Amino acid sequence: MEILEEVELCFPQLLNASCKKPIRSHFEFILSYIILSSITLLTTTLNLLVIISIAHFKQLYTPSNLLLLSLAVSDFFVGLLMFFQIILIDGCWFLGDLMCTLYYVLDYTITSASIGTMVLISIDRYVAICDPLHYSTKVTQKRVQVCVCLCWICSIIFQIVVLKDNLKQPGRYNSCSGECVVFSDYITELVDLVVTFIGPVTMIIVLYLRVFVVAVSQAHAMRSHIAAVTIQGSVKVTAKKSEMKAARTLGVVVVVFLICLCPYYCVAYTGDNLLNASSDAFVMCLFYFNSCLNPLIYAFFYPWFRKCLKLIITLKILQPGSSETNIL
Questions:
Q1: CATH for 24-324, options being 3.10.450.50, 3.40.50.720, 3.40.50.1820, 1.20.1070.10
Q2: pTM of the prediction?
Q3: What is the arithmetic mean of pLDDT over 48-64?
Q4: How confident is the model over 300-316, as pLDDT tens digits?
Q5: How far is CA 111 from CA 47, 79, 123, 190, 248, in A?
Q6: Is the separation of the CB atoms in 254 and 205 below 8 Å?
Q7: CB neighbours of 80 closer than 8 A, spacing ≥ 6?
């Protein structure tokens, strides 16, 4: 009897039909709430600033920035969906089976679109550095718009197919009231793993390694060429800075992406029983934190974003003709 009194139920009125709340210390509960709330606030705010910047200033209407805009939009919605993770902190889902399934569909769709956009960004930078003479003809505004639309449409269709059984009968895989789970068979999970993780990660790594090699070789070539006609010392410094900048930027992009996403996919496809509740929560936070870091990696490294940020914070974008401001 004493054990029964200590157990907390999600829906006490349902007795045996209700899920039991996981046993967590007050410290763990507060810490999880603070971390998730902070990540949510940062993710939505930073990505909203990127969206406003690119959408408002006409000088930023370029193919590359359109990809950054798509990434910021997907990451912004990831931040909004994290409110549902805050709801799940106590281990209970109170919004019904249909909302549970729709949450997973939206979550997987937006995450897939975010990863897909990162692949498009890597392709864009590959063409820009490895084939700069044909970049303007290969990468046009219209082609990028089509690619972005296809990325989102394919993400939506793919995730609906993956979760079709859950959509037909929401809550069919819940073992008790207050649980929010979705299920797919082994083949579907394997295809999902390849399409949404292994494939994109492989493509991003290969393209960025190629970009890195070309960038370093171009820096060496420029140093050798200019050294013959100018002061050798200053050229060495410039070339060295170019090489270090290429290495640092590409390294951050690849390493942060893998650090944030690999633990989640490893746990998701090998079994949650390998971790306890606290470690599982950390993996989820790390996965979502990638959407918070994306605007820092892809936008804060650009000088134009710092200028846009200043104009947004000072509300100068509300002035007439502010969209024509010289940002670059």
A1: 1.20.1070.10
A2: 0.81
A3: 87
A4: 677 778 888 888 888 88
A5: 14, 11, 19, 17, 25
A6: yes
A7: 40, 44
Q: Are 201 and 124 in contact (CB under 8 A)?
A: no
Residues 297, 256 contacting (CB under 8 angstroms) = yes
Selection from 282, 287, 285, 281 nearest residue 262 by Cα: 287
Farthest-apart Cα atoms in the chain, separation: 90
Read off the pLDDT of residues 151-171 as tens digits, 9 standing for 90 and up: 999 999 999 988 888 888 887
Dist CA 185 CA 174 (whole Å): 16
Is-contact 31 89, C-beta < 8 A?
no
3-class state of residue 184 by DSSP: coil
pLDDT tens for each residue of 110-138: 988 988 888 888 888 888 888 888 888 88
Residues 272, 275, 278: CA angle, nearest 5 degrees: 110
Question: Is-contact 40 87, C-beta < 8 A?
Answer: no
